[in-house]
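B., you asked whether I could sanity-check this one before it goes into the benchmark set. Here's the sequence:
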Amino acid sequence: MTSVTSELAETLERVVGAPITGLHRLSAGASRETWALNAAGRELILRRDPPEAPDTAGMAREADCFRACARAGVPVPTLVAHGDGTDGIGSPYLLMERLDGEALPHRLLRADRWASVRPKLVHQFGEILGRIHAIDPAELPRLEEIDDPLTLLRESHAAFGEDRPAMELIFRRLDRTRPEPVPSTLVHGDFRNGNLLIDDGGVRAVLDWELAHIGDPREDLGWLCARAWRFGEAPEVGGFGSYEELLASYGRATGTDPDPEAVRWWEAYACARWAVFCRIQAERHLGGTEQSVEMAVLGRRMAEAEHDALLALGLTGAEVVRDPLRDPVPDEQPALYDRPTVDELLNAVTGFLREELTTEDPRSAYLAKVAANALTIVRREMRLGPGERAMHSARLAVIGCADDGELAARIRNGTVSDDDPYVIAAVRSSITAQVTVANPRYLAPAGRGRRA
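And here's what the prediction gave me:
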């Protein structure tokens, strides 16, 4: 047990009034730390903000959601304690009961253990979302009400000052195809495969309420259906079932049948939102707030989300591409350095991280895999980067743009149409090239070996 873990255990003993054993950090949670512990025989979970990025108000709002959901019959863990961290925890936190079940999507989607449970889940998702959306927003006065999430998303993206024509094209399409508004409700904000604890009866608990707000209830439906949360499986709802099943279950629970086309719009919005979230998480590393290989690699997942948004909007298609790592590295002349080459060194370290490194700490094992993925991205970019930059410049020249900045500005201000086939082709090709470097299998149709 490290000194940090020992100090945290001592503080938790004072908070819960019982001896603490087995305290260890879990791999789950990119934005908050997640710890498991035993308090005199009671299994608990601690979720706290990174000490360098506290959000006292946000944690208090999440605690409000736990209490309101418990009253409404929404399955959530029992809240044991919460605070702003001044009691010694070190940052704002929630302490809750630890429930038995599985939340890892790859296991839930593929393991025989869950085969009999999977058919139940889509129907339960609709029913539970109906309960969440029936909670009176007046019970949650501290939650932010978001009337125009698309504008807020565009502003969040613009704050980075980076030229991404794909995002501008996506925003333009979303803006001109907005569905008619409906009355606002409580919105979970991150209701998806991965944030739902599953046991033999189905959904045991809805987790991770940090993005809850008041807004359009269809946002939760679209987010649940985003392609990123299917993890390579074909069914549209988290990899478990169909739109029709979800909306029928939701309609029975609420007495209101959502417009499928409106939910499709919210699915495309969800993909754009995930793209911006990936960039926000990467900024935590790039800006020095939290040095983390996990956050750094999330920045390269932005292109996957852009691809998904373009796919949901009908502006691109799935395709099978060859992994560049199957091809030899182009020769570099003259050869100034000895063997192994840079690529061979990277490959050796990747193999060590994936196959040789052993650790009993689950989070360290997880981060080793993330680090191996980062090195793999570097190797692919070494192969494709120079040639792709030249091809991208040629595509921009066809539409009369000197660089991505000019194309992004012209899409944003409307001087080129978002229906222009040359603009769409340039954006589509650029995103396909980026995903080919980050994760080429992601481009494949579901059922063709793609794994997110």
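One thing to flag: The CA atoms of residues 297 and 367 lie 11 Å apart. Otherwise nothing jumped out at me.
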